[in-house]
Amino acid sequence: MKRNPLTKKESKIKIALLTAGRSDYSIYLPLIKKIFSEKYFDLHIIAFGSHPYEEFGRTIDFIENDGFKASYIVKALESDFTSKSIAISMGNTIKEFAHIYEKESYELIFALGDRFEMFAAVSASVPFNIQVAHLHGGESTLGAIDDKFRHAITLISKYHFTSTENHAKKVTSLIGSDEFVYNVGALALDNIKDMQLLSIDELKKELEIDFTKPTLLATIHPETININANYRLVKEFIKAVELSEYQTLITLPNNDTTNEFLRRELIKFSETNKNVFVFDALGPLKYYSCMKHCYAVIGNSSSGIIEAASFGKYVINIGDRQKGRDRGGNIIDTPIDATAIKKKIEQIKEMPELNKKNIYGEGNTSDKIISILKSNFLLD
């Protein structure tokens, strides 16, 4: 039964938005702004996962710098990211969120994506019978264990905000119904539409990188299904960048299994190559500004698959991590091989200019979500 906000003096819908790190926060940002601007919603941001940790850029600061305040900051991660440590971190997260859910009376939880921390936080909500709205369900990343977490979150959730029609069909197949399944597009595209991105001169001042030179924007995350591939992944990537001689900006990997090795090798690479720059986290404004001005995107991040097309950028997608996700014509899939990667980098020069059409939407996803929330929670 829908709530009538006029029947109570204080009848705002109390919502918890779960953000586990830099990647989901940058996607959430336009939705956070829209929810805060609506009189019917009482939004609580819960920051956990990698957000509070210095070694991952202390991205809790991004939230505060944007003028928002986290209602809760949860530190639950172990100090390393072995399989055992990740399992323990999941247990720690469930325990911490149990205390939060017991204290609060949330009517809805927003969860995004497929991280192990996100799965743990959502799992803790089940005994409390809190409704969950899941963003980016129905997708596949066959080179990562995230598929299992994503699909499990889908089964726990009531509302499903998918990024493409194919992903909506997958969710329908998983839950056995199309009720409360909405293809709204990718929320990250709202960011691109709404942000006043930095110029080349402003980026040079902020990052000390000259984007008048052809620059690769790179992110390499671990493959968490075939963990043994990660040694070759980072070595072949480094070799390809060296062979190409392109200036390269690298955002370091998130907190997956074997991430320490990748981070160490990429930092070492930057210390011995004056054309390579590494950052723990850039934040949405700087990251999307870099994407706008780069020559091409390279690596295995979902941002290449989803956002890059809106900038008319080709993406050299390495390995299997993103295998299974819907992709546009700007994606160039490449095996983990330096020669093949370098060849694809050079081929982009001869390829036609892209039209910036994006299969993931048009940048109006947050408006669609707000409208759906109102129709489901409030009386007309």
The profile of the biggest β sheet is: 7 strands, parallel
CATH class of the largest domain: Alpha Beta
Assign the CATH topology of the largest domain: Rossmann fold
CATH-level-4 superfamily name of the largest domain: Glycogen Phosphorylase B
| Number of H/I helices | 14
CATH architectural label of the largest domain: 3-Layer(aba) Sandwich
Tell me how many strands there are: 13
Q: What order do the strands of the largest sheet run in, or round the barrel if closed?
A: 3-2-1-4-5-6-7
Rg over CA atoms: 20 Å
Please describe what this structure looks like.
The chain has 14 helices and 13 strands. Helix 9 runs parallel beside helix 10 (259-272). It has helices at 22-36, 60-65, 83-103, 116-123, 146-156, 165-175, 188-194, 200-207, 229-244, 259-272, 283-293, 302-306, 338-347, 365-377, and strands spanning 13-19, 41-47, 70-73, 108-112, 131-135, 159-162, 181-183, 215-219, 247-251, 276-279, 296-299, 315-318, 331-334. The protein folds into two domains: 13-185 and 363-377, Rossmann fold (3-Layer(aba) Sandwich), CATH 3.40.50.2000; 200-350, Glycogen Phosphorylase B (Rossmann fold, 3-Layer(aba) Sandwich), CATH 3.40.50.2000. Helix content is 41%, strand content 16%. The longest helix is centred in the first third of the chain and has 21 residues, at 83-103. The strands form two sheets. The protein has a seven-stranded parallel sheet, sandwiched between helices. Strands 10-9-8-11-12-13 form a six-stranded parallel sheet, with helices on both faces. The protein is globular, with a radius of gyration of 20 Å.
